[in-house]
Design goal:
The complex is a heterodimer of chains A (518) and B (513). Chain A is of the alpha+beta class. In chain A, the strands form four sheets. In chain A, strands 4-7-8-11-3-12-13-14-15 form a nine-stranded mixed beta sheet. Chain B has 513 residues and is α/β, with parallel strands linked by helices. Chain B has a domain of 308 residues: Amidase signature (AS) enzymes, CATH 3.90.1300.10. Helices cover 39% and strands 11% of the residues of chain B. In chain B, β7, α9 and β8 form a beta-alpha-beta unit. The two termini of chain B are 41 Å apart. The chains are: A alpha+beta (518), B alpha/beta (513). The structure holds zinc ion (ZN).
């Protein structure tokens, strides 16, 4: 067996070797902050990034005597999420108090749900990278409130250990949260980390389509806790023999805050568990912290069965009992299921499977959709979004949507860029230059082109556009030219002359046609 | 012109309201009379934890000013009131009788307090109570007990002993209370005053520092049934800030108190709440009152509620369970007391929490937090909290069955008259038994009232008569209470409080606040 030792002294086993010996099982808990106008149990605003402790009141500060009132909008969002995850919706359920002491929790209990979640027993089908579908079984989705945020001042790590003192910001306390918990995910084998990433990506897409959350992992409005355990390998991942093997001890890696981290953290934990187990050791049931920079997890709090939250039904709230009429009405507000939508979009846009997967992996589907409806062609929309913006988003370790939103770089901007090309003002390389300027914050496409003096001679521009149109309209002829039958160009030149009403220079047209096709 | 006594503090709130309305007196004059009375006698009684002369007089001036401009005001506008220290009062200390909240000044008003202010009742101050409303004697107040004006060596009841003793010593014509297991009714009983625990949800809990959320209910305290009804009407009604508040108008309590009619009413005497374990003089006064109701035209029958036997046990599981969670917020992080652990340099937040809770909570509070924490623990939940909730259902069913036969239920409010300080302090079970007759109404969420039934022959101390009614039929309490009060007052030739001994006057020694 080959193991390497990290600077945290945890041994890890080579991933392939680990998978040859063990079968991984995962459980994913995703917390989603709803973007309701007000908090879960009071009227305070929920905006992100406000002055610390400026969005608080007696209720969310847990002042003596204050009482909660349920945010109906949050309940509706929870029901819509449940329905979109193919869950049953409880006709009657209660909140419960989860009791434990923590400085950023104002009441020292979290108002949550325990054995009566609002939604339960659902699933989400996710498309893996090779196009196969994995069904993620959902155990439950329940409503709760977020905690405040501790800021540890002093010390090197920003963690509580070694800090001089701590400050607490209660703006986040009481923000509505939905916790979505999967059943143990089995049968994924070596693809477990990929399943986790694609599930979280699909969930994010679904929640965005539902318009219930900002789902910004880097801002914490979507957070993933990943449970991993290994059991002895007994056959193919989905074989009856394998599924019969009891589950191993799990660890829970907290707050993994990007899609890439979800995949990496699970992969790391599989390798680490494997090294411990193969060395004859046993896994400690504990929480782990994921370190994005070093790519390892470190030990957090030891969990045990003695963890006792003393749950009991919240006596300050009345039960939530959504009527069938309400549930049916909310069902009517659900967006098109993402898988169906994806097929429809692919068909509409004429993308290949590979192109479509790239678009989804880049998280660009909505952006492209909006760009197309702003007037751009599907192929141009894909080309521009997956080019420089994606490269820069990657370099900044953020996702494309957040990157673009932060920059104010919108689908309309891309459509404007495309229209400059289509109108013949810019050619492809000029457009790339303009895009770079826009992303550097120099202004909109037209402004950047003006400022940089980028403009094809009007004639050339119109001619080039005509050539593009003729090529696109005659794929058979274009293919012949590509194969070297230069003589076939004559037919296209004739059409270009016709399209430009004889205004074009035929020699120039020939040069352009051959340039584009050879 | 109303018939006002020379000493305004002896008048009823109803009479004072009329005298204010016809401008015979001003609210400033009336409020000052009470502040003078407080200065004279509260040293002996220790009803108040905090007195607010400036605030009360400012509110009185405001009401007088509004009245002089011809503004139409409520019937209690200008009548001063004492507020139990469990209710959040903006700008006024709110300690709940605990060191834990010493110095805490709430930034907001409880809904009940906001309603009092809106109705123009000047707030004289905050009344003493057992710490976080845990107790039947005020001996568990961190600031020392209040005394029973009938006998200063005896308890004024609890937890609302501050409010009951305020009324019995004429330091306010009205007071607020909260009743989780009898904290309004038992103090009323042992001081010969009136107190009502409304239907659960009938009065907002917003701003009441919670003891046991599913049992707590704020209510009115007065010296007469009508005064109590007038205050009930001001305090009650739906509050969108309290999810458990009932969205319905306050039952017609004032009309019922004025009507004071029991003819044809079916009255059930609860078999399980009387007889063995009840002081002879208490039983005697109770039986006499029942006979008066018969004389007034009520039809009296005996009714059995077999599951009441388990009420006390269920109550002492549910209450500590909810309290253990409700009191978790007192952790020194955001308000109230904060102490560091001794001999620890740079203590952690957890160490500060633990040290503060050790220092800030009294023994009874700690006892109940520990009980509740245990009862909710996994593995014990079903046996304790779960079973207690089942008992609660059975008790509600007993009430349902009883109210199919009768319109109201009656019993003595407490098994005994006021006991002496220290008598039950070392025996929590004996203390808890004091609430045996009042607890069932809290478990079922039903309204209950205690009113004076006279003095026990063996010790000359007040006896309380309890009336219980179905949910949202609070007006029945006042109809029966008003009728009985009238008959008893006629028999005595005046209110029983007229016979209360004079108090020594002594300067107040108000600790802590
Ligand atoms: Zn708030």
């Amino acid at each position: 067996m080959s193991t390497t030792t990290t600077h945290h002294q945890d041994a890890v086993m080579d991933y392939d070797e680990a998978l040859a010996t063990f079968d991984p099982v995962m459980g994913l808990e995703v917390h989603v902050e709803l973007h309701t106008n007000t908090k879960m149990f009071c009227g305070c605003p929920t905006e992100f990034g406000a002055e610390p402790n400026s969005q608080v009141c007696p209720v969310c500060l847990g002042l003596p005597g204050a009482l909660p009132v349920v945010n109906e909008k949050a309940v509706e969002s929870a029901i819509r999420i449940g329905l979109a995850l193919n869950c049953e919706i409880a006709s009657w359920c209660r909140f419960a108090r989860k009791n434990y002491f923590y400085p950023d929790m104002p009441k020292n209990f979290q108002t949550s749900q325990y054995d009566e979640p609002i939604a339960f027993e659902g699933y989400l089908d996710v498309d893996l990278d090779d196009g196969t579908v994995y069904r993620v079984e959902i155990e439950r989705a329940h409503m709760e409130e977020d905690t405040g945020k501790s800021l540890h001042i002093g010390g090197a790590t920003g963690r509580i250990h070694g800090a001089d003192h701590s400050l607490v910001d209660y703006n986040r306390a009481g923000i509505p949260l939905i916790e979505i918990v999967t059943k143990p995910l089995v049968g994924a084998g070596e693809r477990a980390p990929e399943v986790a990433r694609t599930y979280v990506a699909a969930l994010r897409e679904l929640l965005r389509a539902l318009d219930v959350s900002d789902v910004k992992m880097e801002q914490g409005s979507m957070r993933c806790d990943a449970n991993v355990s290994l059991r002895a390998k007994a056959g193919e991942p989905t074989s009856a023999e394998q599924l019969a093997v009891p589950l191993g001890t799990r660890t829970e890696t907290k707050n993994v805050n990007s899609l890439r981290s979800v995949e990496r953290a699970i992969r790391y934990e599989i390798s680490r568990h494997a090294a411990v187990l193969a060395g004859g050791g046993s896994i400690l049931q504990e929480t782990r912290h994921w370190h994005e920079d070093t790519g390892v997890t470190t030990s957090g709090r030891v969990k045990s069965d003695a963890d006792d939250y003393r749950y009991f039904p919240e006596p300050d709230l009345v039960p939530v009992a959504p009527s069938r009429e309400l549930v049916d009405r909310l069902r009517g507000t659900l967006p098109e299921p993402p898988a169906e939508r994806r097929k429809r979009l692919q068909n509409d846009w004429g993308y290949s499977d590979l192109e479509m997967r790239d678009v989804y992996n880049a998280g660009a589907a909505e952006l492209i959709e909006q760009t197309v409806s702003a007037g751009a062609s599907p192929s141009a929309a894909r080309k521009w979004w997956l080019g420089e913006p994606s490269r820069r988003a990657n370099a900044e370790a953020t996702d494309l949507v957040s990157y673009a939103a932060d920059l104010g770089f919108t689908p309309a901007t891309v459509a404007e860029l495309d229209s400059l090309v289509r109108s013949g003002r810019l050619n492809d390389s000029m457009a790339r230059e303009v895009l770079g300027g826009v992303l550097d914050g120099e202004g909109g496409p037209t402004a950047v082109a003006d400022a940089r003096g980028l403009e094809l001679k009007q004639d050339d521009g119109a001619l080039e556009a005509a050539v593009d149109t003729v090529i696109a309209a005659n794929p058979d002829v274009a293919a012949k030219i590509r194969d070297g039958k230069v003589a076939a160009a004559g037919a296209l030149i004739g059409q270009v002359m016709k399209a430009t009403k004889g205004q074009a220079d035929a020699g120039k047209a020939r040069e352009l046609i051959l340039g584009k096709l050879q | 012109m109303t018939d006002l006594p020379a000493d305004l503090t002896r008048a009823t709130a109803a009479v004072l309201g009329e005298a204010l309305a016809d401008k015979t007196i001003s609210s400033v004059e009336l409020t000052q009379a009470h502040l003078d009375r407080i200065a004279a006698v509260d040293g002996a009684v220790h009803s108040y934890l905090h007195v607010d002369p400036e605030g009360a007089l400012a509110a009185a001036r405001d009401v007088d000013g509004r009245r002089s401009t011809g503004e139409t005001l409520g019937v209690l506008a200008g009548v001063p009131i004492a507020v139990k220290d469990v209710m959040a009062t903006r700008g006024l200390p709110t300690t709940c009788g605990s060191k834990m909240l010493e110095g805490w000044i709430p930034p907001y008003d409880a809904t009940v307090v906001a309603k009092l202010r809106a109705a123009g009742l000047p707030i004289l101050g905050k009344t003493n109570m057992d710490e976080f409303a845990m107790g039947s004697s005020t001996e568990h107040s961190a600031y020392g007990p209040s005394r029973n004006p009938w006998d200063l060596t005896r308890i004024p009841g609890g937890s609302g002993g501050g409010s009951s003793s305020v009324l019995a010593s004429f330091q306010a014509p009205l007071a607020t209370g909260t009743d989780t297991g009898g904290s309004i009714r038992q103090p009323a009983a042992v001081t010969a005053t009136v107190g009502t625990k409304p239907t659960y949800g009938g009065v907002s809990r917003y701003g009441l520092v919670a003891l046991a959320s599913s049992l707590d209910q704020a209510g009115p305290c007065g010296r007469t049934v009508l005064d109590t009804a007038l205050l009930h009407a001001v305090m009650g009604g739906h509050d969108p800030m309290d999810s458990t508040s009932i969205a319905a108008p306050v039952p017609p309590v004032v009309e019922a108190a004025r009507r004071a009619d029991v003819s044809g009413l079916r009255v059930g005497v609860v078999k399980e709440l009387g007889g063995q374990g009840y002081q002879a003089g208490v039983q005697e006064r109770f039986d006499e009152s029942v006979q008066l109701l018969v004389d007034l035209g009520a039809e009296v029958v005996e009714v059995s509620c077999p599951n009441f036997e388990y009420a006390l046990a269920a109550y002492y599981l549910i209450l500590p369970s909810e309290a253990s969670s409700n009191l978790a917020k007192f952790d020194a992080m955001r308000y109230g007391m904060r102490v560091g652990p001794e001999g620890v340099e740079a203590p952690s937040a957890e160490q500060v929490m633990a040290a503060t809770r050790e220092a800030g909570f009294g023994p009874e509070v700690k006892r109940r937090i520990i009980l509740g924490t245990y009862a909710l623990s996994s593995g014990y939940y079903d046996a304790y909290y779960g079973s207690a909730q089942k008992v609660r259902t059975l008790i509600a069913q007993d009430f349902d069955a009883a109210f199919e036969q009768v319109d109201v239920l009656v019993s003595p409010t407490t098994p005994t008259t006021a006991f002496a300080f220290g008598d039950k302090l070392d025996d929590p079970m004996a203390m808890y038994l004091n609430d045996i007759a009042t607890i069932p109404a809290n478990l079922a969420g039903l309204p209950g009232m205690s009113l004076p039934a006279g003095l026990a022959s063996e010790d000359g101390l007040p006896v309380g008569f309890q009336i219980l009614a179905p949910a949202m039929q609070d007006d029945r309490l006042y109809a029966v209470g008003g009728a009985l009060e009238g008959a008893l007052t006629d028999r005595w030739g005046g209110p029983v409080l007229n016979g209360i001994p004079d108090l020594p006057t002594a300067p107040a020694d108000r600790t802590g606040v």
